[in-house]
Amino acid sequence: MGLLLTRRSRSCTRGGAWMLLVGLTLSTGCRRVDVPVERLRVEQAVAQTSESCRECHAEIHAAWAPTDHAQANRPVDPVRDAEALRLFALVTPGSVRPEFVLGQKPSWQPLVPAPGGRWQPHEQAFDPAKHEFFNVFGAENRRAGEWGHWTGRGMNWNSMCAHCHMTGYQRRYDPATDTYTSTWIEHGVGCIQCHGPTAPGHGDKNRPLSAGPKPPFLGDRAKMMQTCAPCHARNEKLTEDFQPGDSYHDHYRVTLPVEPEIFYPDGQQRDEDFNWTSVLLSRMGHAGVTCLDCHDPHTTKTILPTTDNQLCQQCHAAPGREMPGGRRATPIDPLVHSRHQPGSTGNSCVACHMPTTTYMQRSPRHDHGWLKPDPLLTKELGIPNACSRCHEREGLDWVVAKADEWYGSRLDSRQRARARCGRGAGGCTGGGRPFAGVDARRGHSGVAGDLSVATARPARRPRRDAGGGGGLARGGPDGARRRSPFLCRQRRGSTSAHAVADRSS
């Protein structure tokens, strides 16, 4: 009502009541008033580095420091990177010496300085396990001057990579001069990038714990997951204003599985889609499962092993865990369900329901839709299924017959009908809606197929998670030049070096 108080206060009156007027009379009596304290934005908290958190949070800092988040971007280290620098000079004779390193494992790319305040991730990436460089584009033979060449706008670090690899990053692009004066607080994904800046006086041991504002999440896992989404989703930025604690869908347009070059008709990942859409539209997402139910946010490892199905059995062991909203997870006995021996690939929940696709030649990514492997859809529509990965020698017809023998009508599900409908193969129900699931913009149950007309577009220019727009070839402000998507992605059926639509255009 126009009143902004800046601290928490207790107000009592003589005789038990007093009245606060702010254009109108509020209430009476003694009460505790929780009032917001204006927070710094992440990019403003220049003194709040992860190192400054270490004194009070040493154990968490130690767990985070070696992770892919902490090492998402870093300056070149002459000692640590000595071998790689030597090999890079041999593989790319005459190349500019890299200043930064992008990523950590299973590979990283040298970031080379370029005119206009730019950095470009080189196409020669380093595999630290094999101690060798390889071309992330494979045999595509991209050429200088093309949008998707490593020196081009499609592969620019400032506009396409840095916001997910740095803390407090500000792009600061000037269209008049086609230059960047990018700034950041620290390399890598630091504490405040996820938790948000702390309030004044945070860390003061003499300050009451109840004083000051609460963290933006307030223990809400669903809200925490919104902060994972911007960098773990294929999306387009709608604003530049997202801060920890905000709603993801207020700031991004998420890519839905109605775009055939991006998802398979059943919703499986095809291009590099990351995880957010898949989780959002999955049965798990409907049940309230969040990133933090499976992943430790500081170590980034799973909270339980996957090798013996412990991670999945935390919810699916009989009688089934009660989920948010009172829904109970389906109890599953892995041996009975899979009909494969314990310890085998066929007995693994993850191997069957989270198959991997390899991108950038050497980066396998798990699908997070937890879909049923359906060999019949492979036969009808060419959609991959996990069973055939192990039973290729037996042939597809054998796999289809075995799946029908074991699971029968359970495979004749909404997933199958949706896939057939989405490819015009018949079986459409409910008014011809190809993808029934969650309204991804509102986060509630609905029919995403209704969005297909409004959201389906021609395939947009994809990008990699380690690429960007704004390079050596001019083409409009911030790399916003429109080009054919097939200049920037690999052919169907091969591993993809690109995935996410250019967020700057």
Automatic annotation (TrEMBL):
Span of domain Doubled CXXCH motif: 290-318
All residue ranges annotated as the Cytochrome c-552/4 domain in the record: 156-196
Top-rank taxon: Bacteria
Extent of Gly residues compositional bias: 467-478
InterPro entries reported for this sequence: Cyt_c-552/4 (IPR023155), Multihaem_cyt_sf (IPR036280), Paired_CXXCH_1 (IPR010177)
Region entry Disordered, spans: 443-505
Name the UniProt record assigns to this protein: Uncharacterized protein
Protein species of origin: Oleiharenicola lentus
